[in-house]
UniProtKB/TrEMBL annotation:
Xref: InterPro entries: RNA_pol_sigma-70-like, RNA_pol_sigma-70_dom, RNA_pol_sigma70_ECF_CS, RNA_pol_sigma70_r2, RNA_pol_sigma70_r4_t2, RNA_pol_sigma_r2, RNA_pol_sigma_r3/r4-like, WH-like_DNA-bd_sf
GO biological process: one example: DNA-templated transcription initiation
Residues in RNA polymerase sigma factor 70 region 4 type domain copies: 129-177
Natural source organism: Croceicoccus marinus
Keyword Nucleotide-binding attached: no
GO molecular function: DNA binding; sigma factor activity
Residue ranges of domain RNA polymerase sigma-70 region in the record: 27-93
Protein name, as recorded: RNA polymerase sigma factor
Family according to the record: Belongs to the sigma-70 factor family. ECF subfamily.
NCBIfam families for this protein: sigma70-ECF
Top-level taxonomy: Bacteria, Pseudomonadati, Pseudomonadota, Alphaproteobacteria, Sphingomonadales
Domain of life: Bacteria
One family name in Pfam for this protein: Sigma70_r2
Keywords noted in UniProt: DNA-binding, Plasmid, Sigma factor, Transcription, Transcription regulation
Length: 186
């Protein structure tokens, strides 16, 4: 559902604007896995990512009047989800500053390596890379996750973040450069 919305999506958007909850569910349900993946990559914790997506969808329902038949739904929902992630990260940072709890450890996928030694090294590298992604400045992290990790086009990322395609290219380049320097140090 990138680019111009199709006629089915436009019809659903019209129903949603009129207050049809079933149409809203039908419209957003196929997009939830992508939104969840984005928020999980931003936050690093599955339970927080689910909460953020749920809040984002509630906000989208409240702001349904801003949906238009010519406006694609996925970038609209992704923007709301990213804003909710930013809010969550700010609250997390404030809580850590005030000494309330610790950030949860990110869930890491295991690598089916041929030997335990290789698996250990790969897991450590993945953990270090994930930790360094979490330490990137927010704008770099968003661009990297959307463009490089999720594979969205620079045009789509530019639309979601409200910046130019050249700025997206620059942010992704800088994020990769920072990661390469940090991860290769040992």
């Amino acid at each position: 559902m990138q680019g111009q919305p199709d006629s089915q999506e436009q019809a659903l958007v019209a129903k949603v604007a009129a207050g049809d909850r079933r149409a809203f569910t039908e419209l957003v349900e196929p997009l939830i896995p992508r939104l969840l993946a984005t928020s999980l990559r931003m936050l690093g914790a599955h339970d927080e990512a689910e909460d953020v997506v749920q809040n984002a969808l509630a906000s989208a329902w409240i702001a349904r009047a801003r949906l238009g038949p010519a406006r694609p739904v996925l970038p609209f929902l992704t923007t709301i989800t990213l804003n909710k992630c930013r809010d969550k990260l700010r609250r997390r940072k404030a809580a850590q500053f005030l000494g309330f709890g610790n950030a949860s450890m990110p869930e890491l996928a295991s690598d089916p390596a041929p030997s335990p030694e290789t698996e250990t090294v790969d897991r450590q590298l993945l953990q270090k890379t994930h930790a360094e992604i979490q330490r990137l400045p927010l704008r770099l992290r968003e661009a990297l996750i959307l463009a490089a990790i999720e594979g969205r086009s620079q045009s789509e990322v530019a639309d979601i973040l409200g910046i130019s395609e050249k700025a997206v290219e620059s942010l992704v380049y800088r994020a990769r450069k920072v990661l390469k320097e940090k991860v290769s140090r040992e």
